[in-house]
What we know:
This protein is mostly helical. The chain has 7 helices and no strands. 16% of the residues are buried.
Amino acid sequence: MSRRDRDARVSAYGATVDVGDATTRYLLYGLLPSWFVPGLADWVMHRRTRIEDTAGTKESLIHTLMMAEVGVPIALTLRYEVNPLLLCAQLAGTAVHEATALWDVRTAVDSDREVKPVEQHIHSFLESLPFAALAALSCLHADQVRSLLRGGRGDPQAWRLVPRRRPLSRGYLAAVAAAIGGCVVLPYGEELLRCVRAGRGRARSRKKGAPGDEAAWHAEAEDTEAEKGQ
């Protein structure tokens, strides 16, 4: 029975929907695309609070690190079967991402960049989405969770990357790649470039300003001595 026929039967007779299939569609076409929205909104907040003049390159590099921490497990999940090895990668990525998120906020606060309530609320989405995705995948692949708890005993492919038996369509993967490029790589690449340029500009200003500052100090000292002599 095709998916269309099954959906028509569900609509006509009220049959129970395949929860696993519905959850998979939710992950692929709901949760993953929605991830880009708070990520782009966070970039807007960084721009509004002029990250290049406060935390600068350090915080921007932390953002790049956090994207890699969630991006690598997502890329693996889109290409390979969920098994104990992949679950470990997802767990590690989620845990490290949470720790890095705390480091990110601390860096922003220490630099005097204003982290507004709206940005904090955006962060709550970015931090909770990895946990939501991991929970849904664990429910879909409860057998692999049990295998992980047993250390993968009895499963020769537990600790290997196994290509998906039902690969995702090239169109879907291309759409995800385009979304990553447009909503992650371009804006955050622009942010990093902006921070690097601002940092170099400040460094050049300090180098050029040092002799001038010293000369101004000497001139002020001479004026003071002249006033005293008078």
